[in-house]
Amino acid sequence: MRADIQGLEITLGELKHLTGAGPDRVYRPATATKFAREALKTVGLIVLVLISCWLLVAIFPRAYLLWFALHFAAIVGLIFEDAWKIRCSQQNQHLINLFDDVDRYNGIIKAIEINDQIEDAGNAEVKIGDRAKVIQALQLIRDDLVRALKTERILRENKKFVATNSELFANNLKNLNALQISDRASEQGRLLNEALQVAVGVQAEMKKLQDRNATNFKNGKT
Description:
Number of strands: 0
Distance between the termini: 54 Å
Number of helices: 7
Largest sheet: none
Helix content: over 70%
Radius of gyration: 24 Å
Low-confidence stretches: 181-185
Strand content: under 5%
């Protein structure tokens, strides 16, 4: 990885630090179909646990109470984890959307890294033109993503958060739009367009968070 894109990726560890939760805390996408599929997987695991219990009791019948207790605890744990994830997914749609934006952003970084490897292999024609502009756009996107993730966590953990911290909702979309794209068909143009799409998505989530925060604040005063 070249030096100018090192540190741009938002790692899983950083994501957990910023949000206080990892992507594995929720189901993505948070749809009824996804929930049903995960529930079916849980049912399958429960069946396997029951089979395991039956086999162990048949082999070691004297310890049947122990096997029953252990496998019952395992089944309860599976059901609880599934229910907890579904509940978290339903209550944290904004967080899920931001996780998706982070994945798209990291995907752009990965695409640049692969492109660099192809170029280093002797294919000079794939070189990204005006690379500095692309990196600048990605840095702006990263700043907005970090700000959005921090804001979402504040609102999630502080239901009575005062709607006066407008600086948390600032975004770099205007700065990104100022990065004119001379050739949209070029690799540079494609990357900048993808970055702009991520920025628009982040801005939309920030607006939703701001509106939700303002609503909660008004309700708290009434």
